[in-house]
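pinned: reference chain
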Amino acid sequence: MKFNDSNCRVLHLGRNNLMHQCRLGADLLESSSAERVLEVLGDNKLTMSQQCALVARKANGILGCIKKSVASRSKEVLFPLYSALVRTHLEYSVQFWAPHFKKDEELLERVQRRATRMMRGLEHLSYEERLRELGLFSLKNRSLRRYFINAYKYLKGGSQEDGARLFSVVPSDKRSGNGHKLMHWKFQLKKRKNFFPLRVMESWNRLLKEVVDFPSLEMFKTRLDKVLCSML
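pinned: its C-alpha cells
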C-alpha cells in the first residue's frame, strides 16, 4: 500500500521530545501540533480540550438545526432527536478522549442543558429537575456509570482483559468500606492520572457495599442507577 505523503504528519509527544525530522521515503514530513484520526482530534499535549471544543461545536450546530426545523417542543419529539442525533456526538469514542478538565466537562454539559431547556414544560425547572423528569443522567454521571460497569467486569471476571494489571483490591475490615476497595499501580507521569484506573478508583471506593457486592452484572446496574439518580 502506498502512502500519500501530503496526508502524513508527525505528532511529537512528550516534554523532552527531540523533535527529530522524519522521512517517508525520500520526502521530509511536516510536524503538526494536532491531528484527527477517525473524527477524534488529538494534540501533542494529550489534553483533549480541542476535541471537546470540536464536539461541543458540532453538537450545538445539530441542536440548532433541530430547533429551527422541528416545530414541536414536546419532550416526546425532542428527547428522541437529542438522544439519536446530538448525544451520539458527545459520546462518540469518549472512552478514548474523556475530558480531563472541569471546564471541558462543563462545555459538553452545557449542550445537554440547552437541549433539555428546549422542551416544553421543562424550561423553568432547574437542570437537575429536568434530568429527573426525563430519566436522564448528567454526562458526567453517564461516564461514571460506564467506568463502574467496566471496573465491575474486571473485578468479577466478566471481562476478557486481565483486571489484575489495572487494579488490586485492598484487604479491608468488612465493617468499613465496600469490601472491594481498589488500589492502583504507582505512576510517575502526571498524565497517567487521566487513565481509566485512576479516574474510576476514587469514585468506586466511595460506593457502598450494598451496591458493589452483587453476584450479577444486571443487579449491579440496577442498584448503581439508583445511586447515580441520587447524585443529580
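why pinned: The beta strands are 9-11, 23-24, 27-28, 30-32, 34-37, 40-43, 167-169, 182-184. Residues 35 and 164 are 33 Å apart (CA to CA).
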